[in-house]
Design brief:
alpha+beta; hpI Integrase, Chain A; three-stranded antiparallel β-sheet; 15 helices; 42% helix
Length: 437
């Protein structure tokens, strides 16, 4: 390794391989620092190293030289660790969300700060910055959406604080900072209990009638299979309580039609793979018939397209290829192949069911919410519903049971205390005279 010294041995210049770039090192602020000169010329490297050293000395005297790990260092370490350790346990989208929040919002604000400088006050300044910078284009964002004056949602800001807390916990684990400051919102009131968008019994009836009518008479015959799939999807989801991602992962070999031992009804036993790993679900009897229709419905086979026909004619082939026969679903096929979100949203808009009374948009997830609410309205046990939906009793009680009127017993609430009978006035006590006895 070639090595040279300048400024009386205060700065060392070296390179590890012949023809490579020169690097420089020096001790400034009781810490050994290194940098690349990005040149293979020794004379130019000496000038760059001298400017670099004098710049560090100036920052040290001005009190702006960081002698501790910065937030940028902790964020890099967190991203590297989180992606490797949580592989297969967290969704790829959630892992990428941490990196996106760091790149767009957190690093531009906290990046050059030392870890000890990130206090509760600085985090509060960040919240104010996020709420007051709306309407201004973020130079770190790669989104093509137009800039709006809409403030970030509370959930968005909450996720950014979660990422910030994860980075600070990483710094604590590596000993770069002693503790994580209190970064909770100081003015946060008790969270408002809100109703998750769902379909009431009347709205659910209106929905499946609308999907059924469209399946019988679609806009075009080409869309009939898709319309029938959406109709079966609505009935299946509202009678099983599956999450949309669980339904997309579902294969026919995961579903079995059985006769329940306790009720004697035909139901579906489903092996679910999704957010919580592998779980099991027992459906309502009304889910059996829609699933049987899915089993007996072959996926339409597309014939020769116009582009394929033109290519065949250019190649001089006269005979068109035979169209393959439609086949029934196989055990390894998806129960709901493809994506019918656009058609589902179109039916919701046409039936005026896209938004609930609070202005919240209904999605395919609303069918799961509908299942939970309908089960609670029928008097099902909260613990049994939670196990069948692969969630916790706390989530059921917080987001669903608080809105169901059937969960309140009028007999227990409308209790009246019995009125006491009218009291009689006490009679005066008469004592016998001892002299008269």
């Amino acid at each position: 390794m070639q090595r040279h010294e300048i400024l009386g041995g205060k700065v060392q210049i070296y390179r590890r391989a012949e023809g490579g770039s020169w690097h420089c090192s020096a001790s400034v602020g009781n810490k050994q620092r290194r940098s690349s000169t990005r040149t293979d010329s020794l004379s130019l490297a000496k000038q760059v190293a001298e400017d670099w050293y004098l710049g560090l000395r100036g920052k040290l005297h001005a009190g702006v030289l960081k002698t501790e790990k910065t937030f940028k260092d902790a964020a890099f370490q967190f991203t590297r660790e989180y992606e490797a350790i949580t592989e297969g346990q967290r969704s790829v989208r959630w892992t990428e969300g941490h990196a996106i929040r760091l790149r767009i919002h957190l690093l531009p604000f906290f990046g050059d700060m030392g870890l000890s400088e990130i206090t509760a006050g600085r985090v509060q300044e960040y919240r104010v910055h996020r709420m007051s910078s709306r309407g201004v284009a973020n130079p770190h964002s790669r989104s093509n959406r137009p800039v709006t004056d809409k403030a970030p949602a509370l959930k968005t800001l909450h996720n950014e604080i979660v990422t910030l807390r994860q980075v600070l916990h990483t710094a604590v684990r590596h000993g770069w900072v002693s503790h994580v400051p209190d970064i909770s919102s100081p003015y946060r009131a008790s969270s408002k209990v809100e109703h998750r968008p769902w379909f009431s019994p009347a709205e659910y009836k209106q929905l499946y009638k609308a999907t059924g009518a469209y399946a019988k008479e679609p806009f075009h015959e080409h869309y009939r299979w898709n319309a029938e799939q959406v109709h079966g999807y609505v009935l299946f989801m509202a009678n099983t309580g599956l999450r949309p991602d669980e339904a997309s992962n579902l294969e026919h070999r995961d579903v079995e039609i059985v006769i329940d031992d306790e009720t004697g009804q035909r139901i579906l036993e489903i092996e679910v793979r999704g957010k919580r790993g592998v779980g099991f679900c027992k459906s309502m009897p009304n889910a059996v018939r829609p699933y049987e229709r899915l089993l007996g419905r072959p996926k339409p086979v597309q014939g020769e397209t116009r582009r394929q026909r033109r290519r065949r004619e250019l190649e001089g082939v006269r005979e068109a290829p035979e169209t393959p026969l439609a086949e029934l679903p196989k055990p390894t096929d998806k129960v709901f192949p493809g994506n019918h979100v656009k058609l589902f949203n179109g039916i919701l808009d046409k039936a005026d069911l896209k938004f609930d009374r609070d202005g919240k948009a209904r999605t395919a997830y609303s069918l799961r919410h509908t299942y939970v609410c309908l089960r609670l309205m029928e008097g099902a046990d909260v613990y049994a519903v939670a196990r069948n939906c692969r969630t916790s009793v706390e989530m059921i009680q917080k987001h669903y049971a608080a809105h169901i009127k059937n969960m309140i017993s009028a007999a227990s609430v409308n209790v009246r205390r019995a009125k006491p009978s009218a009291r009689r006035k006490p009679q005066p006590v008469q004592f016998e005279d001892d002299d008269q006895s």
